[in-house]
Amino acid sequence: MARLLLLLREHVDARGLGALVSAPVDVVLDADRHLVVQPDICFVAASRRGIIRGRVWGAPDLVVEVLSYGSRTYDRRRKLGWYCRYGVREYWVVDPVAREIAVNDFASDARRAFGARESLRTRVLPRLRLEVGRVFP
User: Fold this and answer.
1) Alpha helices in the chain (DSSP H)
2) Which value, in Å, is the radius of gyration of the alpha carbons in the chain?
3) Residue 1: count of CB within 10 angstroms of its CB
4) If you average pLDDT over every residue of the chain, what do you get?
5) CA separation for the pair 55, 1 (Å, rounded)
6) What's the rounded Cα separation, in Å, for the pair 30 and 77?
7) Per residue in 17-59, pLDDT tens?
8) Cα within 13 Å of Cα(93), Cβ side
9) pLDDT value at position 78?
10) Structural domain boundaries enclosing 124
11) Mean pLDDT of all residues in 105-125
12) Under a CB-based contact definition with an 8 Å cutoff, are residues 43 and 62 in contact?
């Protein structure tokens, strides 16, 4: 996750695109229902930076979860549903075993997995060309 965070931070900071925050940080998707998650990485666009006040109050533009053995089903099903329902624009699922990153674009209802030999492209960060192989040791 550290390599991905570094690559994203270089891109976002160089262009002044917004804020990247990483775990542990609470993301309050629904305060009334006490629905709070702690994604590995999230990005909030500059125009929405005001939702970051100690926590992230509302849906980030981009959420990244790195799968672990115990979180695979939870991250791919339950969290995917929450992020879609509460307005996250994109949800990336990083699979270190398969060495791939799946991009779930909720605006277009599309999902695409990018392997280690591919460059990831995203609508949330349209100028980003992330070489997936650089993310994995």
Assistant:
1) 2-15, 72-73, 80-85
2) 14
3) 15
4) 94
5) 20
6) 18
7) 999 999 999 999 999 999 999 999 999 999 999 999 999 999 9
8) 22
9) 86
10) 2-134
11) 94
12) yes
What percentage of the chain carries pLDDT values higher than 70?
99
Cα–Cα distance for residue pair 120/79, rounded to 1 Å? 21
CA atoms within 13 A on the CB side of 70: 0
**Residue in this structure with the two tokens 């909030």, named with its chain if needed:** 44
What is the CATH classification number for the domain harbouring 66? 3.90.1570.10
- Check pLDDT > 90 for residue 74: no
Sorted by sequence, the CB contacts under 8 Å of residue 19 that are 6+ apart come out as 12, 43, 44, 46, 49, 52
Retrieve residue 23's tokens: 């775990």
Given this model, what pLDDT does residue 69 score? Answer: 79
Task: Output the pLDDT for position 72.
Answer: 73
Phi, psi of 56 (to 5 degrees): -100, 115
Number of domains, the chain: 1
How far apart CA 36 and CA 80 sit, in angstroms, is 14
Summarize the confidence of residues 62-74 as an average pLDDT. Answer: 84
CA distances from 32 to 29, 44, 85 (A): 9, 22, 15
- Residue 106 corresponds to which tokens in the numbers above? 């909720």
